[in-house]
Amino acid sequence: MAPHAKPVDSFDLVIIGGTGDLARRKLLPALFHRFLDGQITPESRIIGGARDDLTTEAYRHMARESIASESADPAAVDTFLQLVHFTRIDVRSAESFSTLASLLNQRPGNVRVFYLAIQPSLFSDACRQLRDAGLNCDRCRVVVEKPIGHDLPSATATNEVLAEAFTEAQTFRIDHYLGKETVQNLLALRFGNALFEPVWNAAHVDHVQITVSEQAGVGGRHSYYDSAGAMRDMVQNHLLQLLCFVAMEPPHSISADPVRNEKLKVLQSLEPLDGEAALAATVRGQYRAGVSGSSAVAGYAEETGLEDSNTETFVALRAGIANWRWAGVPFYLRTGKRLAQRVSEIVIAFRSVPHSLFGTTAGGALSPNKLVIRLQPDEGVKLSLMIKEPGPGGLRLRESSLDMTFAETFGGRHPDAYERLLMDVVRGNQTLFMRRDEIEAAWRWVDPIIAAWNDSAAAPRPYAAGSWGPSAAVALVEREGRTWHEDTDL
To answer: What are the CA-CA distances from residue 211 to residues 15, 322, 376, 487 (Å)?
Structure first.
C-alpha cells in the first residue's frame, strides 16, 4: 500500500455509461490504481451499466483492455477484474433499474456511488429511475460531470433535476482539475506557510495569470464542442475554479462547506462584464491551419466540416475581483486548443521592489518575483528570485528559481485526479467538488459575456495552429504593461 493510502469503506460504484470513453480511459484505470494501492476492499464492486447486451465476462475483457497499459502483476489484474461486474441499464427502462436494485441489495452495507457518465440530457431520466427504484439511501452518492447546463437557466434546471432525487450532501459535481496535486498545494502553500499569505494581496501582487492550453484540436468532440466553445467548456468551470482557489479568503477549516463558502464569495465578487466592457476585456479566437509540434494540422473549419462556425476555440480575458484583498489586481485568464504547448499553470506575479539599490552595475532591471504553480504536464512549484551571479567583478544580479518539481522532489508515481476524487466520493468528502450555488454563480458571470459576443456579431479572431492565439490576446495584456508568462523550463 502506498504511504497514507488508507482503505475506504466497501462500496458499489455503478458507472451508468460504463462502456463509454470516460469509463474506459479514466474511471477504470483510476479504480485499478486505487486497488493496487490497497484502498479498495475485496467486498467492493465496480458495476458497469449500459444499454449494450454484454455479459460480465465480456465487460471484464473490455476493462482488461482499458488497464492494459498499466504495468502490473497479471495476478493483480485478475484479482481486480473479479470486482468488476456488468448489468444492462437503459435510463428509460424501470425494469433495468429494478434489476440493478436487486444486485445492490445483495450487499446492503456498502456505500453506493452512481456515476452518471452519460450526456446531460439523460440526467433527468437516470435520476428519476434511481429515485423510483429506491436507490437514494443515506449512504448513496451521485456523481455528475460537466457541463452542468449551457447557461444559467439550463444549469438551474439540471440542478433541480438532481435535487429531486438526491440531497446536496449526496451530489458530487466533479471537476477533475480540482483533484490535481498542485491545486490542493495552493491551499498548503497559502495557509500552511508564514511566507506567502501576508503578501497574497493587492499591496504585493501585481497581477495573476491562469493558463490552460492544449496542443490538441477538437477531434471527435466537435458535435459537443461546437455548441459549447472554449468559454462554456473551460472558462466557466475549470478556470474559474482555479481562480477561486487563488483568490479565496482563509476558510475556518479545510472541510467542504467552509472552503466552498469562500469560493462562492470570490465568484460573487467578480466585477461584471457585459456589453462594451465585455468586448474590451475579452478576446476570442478560432484556430486555422498551422503546425502543431512537427506536423501540419488543419484548421477548425476543415477539421470539423463546419465552414461557417463562429465557435471560439480560444478565450483570453481580464477579470477583476471587487473586494479589499484584490481590488485593482487584474486576473488574466487564457485557454485554447491547438496552442504552442500543452500546459496548465497559475502565475502569481508580485510587484517590483520600490527602489533598486544596485544601479547599472546590477546587470539591468530587476525582474519581479513570480510564483509559478504548474498543474500539467509536469506538476510542480517554482519561485523566481533575484540573486547575485557568482564570481568576481562586482555585484551582478540575475534571476534564478527555487524549483520543486514533484517528480524530482517526491519520486515515484502520483495518483491522478480521478483516483483522488473517486475515493473522496466514497468517503463523502465534498471539499474538491462544486456546490450548486457555485455553478450558478459562475454562469451568472459568464452569460453576459457570451451575450455581448452574440450581440456584436463579430467572428472569432483567427490564429495559426501552433501559436499562442490571436495577437489581440497579447495586446490585452501588453497594453497594461505586462506580458504573458511562457516558460517551458519547469
So the answer is: 32, 22, 11, 12
At residue 359, the pLDDT reads: 65
The DSSP line for 374-416 is EEESS-EEEEEEEEEPSSSSS--EEEEEEEEEHHHHH-S----
Determine whether 33 is an active site residue.
no
CATH number at residue 27: 3.40.50.720
N-terminal to C-terminal alpha carbon distance within the chain: 30
Question: Which residues fall within 8 angstroms of residue 111, CB to CB, at 6 or more apart?
Answer: 8, 9, 10, 11, 12, 139, 140, 141, 426, 428
DSSP code at position 427:
H
State the cell numbers at 2. Answer: 502506498
The total number of structural domains that make up the chain: 2
> Are residue 136 and residue 191 in the same domain, yes or no?
no
Asked if the structure places residue 311 within a domain, the reply is yes
Q: Which residues face 36 on adjacent strands? A: none
Residues 112 and 196 in one domain: no
- Total number of residues shown for the chain: 490
Claim to verify: residue 386 and residue 451 sit in the same structural domain: yes
Domain encompassing residue 393: 178-423+435-478
Catalytic residue of the set 238, 355, 414, 485: 238
Segment 240-257, tens digit of pLDDT: 999 999 999 999 998 899
pLDDT tens across 366-387, in order? 788 899 998 888 778 888 887 7
93-124 confidence digits (pLDDT tens): 999 999 999 999 999 999 999 999 998 888 88
Grid coordinates belonging to 93: 427502462
Measured distance CA(472)–CA(116) in Å, rounded: 39
Whether 204 contacts 354, CB under 8 Å: no
- Which one-letter amino acid corresponds to residue 89? I
